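Tutorial, part two.
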Amino acid sequence: MDLGAEKAAIIKRFEQVHDLKLIKAIKDLLDFGLSKQINDDQALEESINRGIQQSKQGLVRPHSEVMAEVRKRYHK
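Running the prediction step on this input gives:
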């Protein structure tokens, strides 16, 4: 099932809920998930921006060098 279909199914089921405690619990769960998503998105953007700045400053290593180091460390 795709994302849109999953959301539609949840909304359809949620419309059948009449328990205020359950509705508040679902709202709290959604609030938590959305705040975490925003924080994760911000952290990703900051990480990308740091990488761009490091690249502009020449603080990078070639992919082949990094992969050789990874292979040496983890393929003993």
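The helical segments are 3-14, 20-56, 63-74. In part three we will examine how such features are distributed along the chain.
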